[in-house]
């Protein structure tokens, strides 16, 4: 990576956290995108200095676009869109449809994500095999991480209007949700 990095963004997806860096050589027309430090896209000698670069992020090939706009003279503004939404809008929506827990299991860092709209569960970037069941007070989604028994319970908070509360239990112990 050279000294032409003009934009850095952190993106949280179900399959992991991604650091996106954008290098823009305004004299050479070079555009380079790095994802977690690895080169993902390179274009040399671009004569048009403004425009868009679209590329996939993560194992689900989530669509990301960097917009390059001239603001005056040779000053540029760089914005990131994920799935067609400005990054902050995407992250705000994501926080409504997913829950994330970060914990250590057997000495290893674990990031467990529940996608509330599909009930898919991810652990460190891998979609987990799950088994769901209905209970008297909601639902339970069971899965294993290594030899650990995990369960995400979905219950109502008992108030009107009711709100669904998701809790992760590992070997029967409740884990606090992470703030991302």
From TrEMBL:
Cited Gene3D superfamilies: 2.40.128.180
Coiled coil, from the record: none
InterPro entries recorded: FAIM1 (IPR010695), FAIM1_dom_sf (IPR038513)
GO BP terms in the entry: negative regulation of extrinsic apoptotic signaling pathway via death domain receptors
Record's protein name: Fas apoptotic inhibitory molecule 1
Naturally occurring in which organism (per UniProt): Triplophysa tibetana
């Amino acid at each position: 990576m050279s000294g032409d990095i003009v934009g850095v963004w952190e993106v949280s997806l179900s399959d992991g956290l991604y650091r996106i860096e954008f290098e823009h050589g305004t004299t050479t027309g070079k555009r380079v995108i790095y994802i977690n430090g690895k080169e993902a896209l390179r274009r040399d000698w671009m004569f048009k200095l403004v425009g868009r670069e679209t590329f996939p992020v993560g194992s689900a090939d989530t669509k990301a676009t960097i917009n390059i706009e001239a603001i005056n003279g040779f000053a540029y503004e760089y914005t990131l869109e994920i799935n067609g939404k400005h990054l902050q809008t995407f992250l705000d929506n994501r926080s409504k449809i997913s829950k994330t827990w970060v914990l250590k299991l057997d000495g290893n860092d674990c990031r467990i994500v529940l996608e509330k709209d599909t009930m898919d569960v991810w652990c460190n970037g891998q979609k987990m095999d799950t088994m769901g069941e209905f209970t008297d007070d909601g639902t339970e989604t069971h899965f294993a991480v290594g030899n650990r028994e995990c369960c995400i319970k979905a219950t109502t908070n008992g108030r009107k209007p009711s709100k669904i509360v998701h809790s992760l239990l590992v070997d029967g112990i409740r884990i606090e949700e992470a703030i991302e």
